[in-house]
Write a structure and sequence with these properties.
Layout: H1 2-13, H2 16-25, E1 29-34, H3 41-53, E2 62-67, H4 74-82, E3 90-93, H5 97-100, E4 118-123, E5 128-133, H6 141-146, E6 151-154, H7 161-173, E7 177-180, H8 186-195, E8 200-204, H9 205-209, H10 213-217, E9 221-226, H11 237-240, H12 244-253, H13 255-259, E10 261-265, H14 271-285, H15 288-296, E11 305-306, H16 307-318, H17 323-333
Parallel strand pairs: 1-2, 1-3, 6-7, 6-8
Antiparallel strand pairs: 4-10, 4-11, 5-8, 5-9
Helix pairs in contact: 7-12
Amino acid sequence: MLTRIVALCIAIALPQGARAADDVFAGKTINIIAGFPPGGGVDGEMRVLARYLAKYIPGQPTIVPRNMQGAGGIILANHLYNVAAADGLTLGMPGRSGFLLSNVVPQKGINYDLARFSYVGGAGSAANALWIHRRTGITSVADLKRARTPIVIGALNARSENAIAPRVLESYEGWPLKVVTGYPGFSEVLIALDRGEVDGLFSHEGSVANTRPDLISTGAVKPIVQSFDAMAGVPVLPDVVVDPNALALLGLVTTPSHIGLPLLGPPGIPPDRLEILRRSYLRLMDDAEYRAEADRRGLPVGRAVGGAELQQLIAQKLSAVPERLVKEYMAFAGIKAEE
């Protein structure tokens, strides 16, 4: 009896906002969806986050990880924007490059405004690198430039950074690279790598380490150049690329990897719910156990970006792109003007 009275007194004493916060998500299920199939870096980051996030959300809801693959995250983005309820119970990680650059130019199939999503937060920047298999004998940019046969790079779709960056390097710098697209996820690229169908990939470390950490630990694949300074001893693109047009285009294409991987929801999530999710996300980013598991899986969290900051960063970086760069991006991505 005394216990019930104490509990009642505590409940009465709690501010109404605190009780409301607990009520919003208590007993609910939050679906967090990756825009790529199981096994790749985006899926891996989503699943680690889904495992730990609930304990920081008041009411401790159940979190269910899901996948909705296709078009480099664009199918998921369309679903979040046009179908999912804006109640904070459906969140997604559409991806980096394909999604974050999708509004740079008008494209068929893009049915959303990038700036209007409800951004919860983002994992820190993840440098992409050109990973080459040791059977090629290539261990440096100099080795690559001397290669007499094309080095085949496996990629997902023509509009993503993992395909465009190598094509820019081949076209402007003359690097002997041949890009093959159409793989549904990086797990499939790694299978093709084992089979000898491709010789490498352009992506962040997590795309390899999440499912095949042995490829890195044994030296089967080696990063020979990276988009920005993240891995010691690996040169960065601005230090090895000569053509200024290539540098400008690579700067645009690699912007998503600087921004990181966003967690977001549909437009119009009520401000109080969105604020709860944002605070919970930032608390998770300081969780030592979460960060340790992410590191073990080759998915380092890096610097956490809050939802409000992320929304502003996307608006600043991706809203005013010079027309010349847009046209070049369209050409390399295979996007026709009439699309």
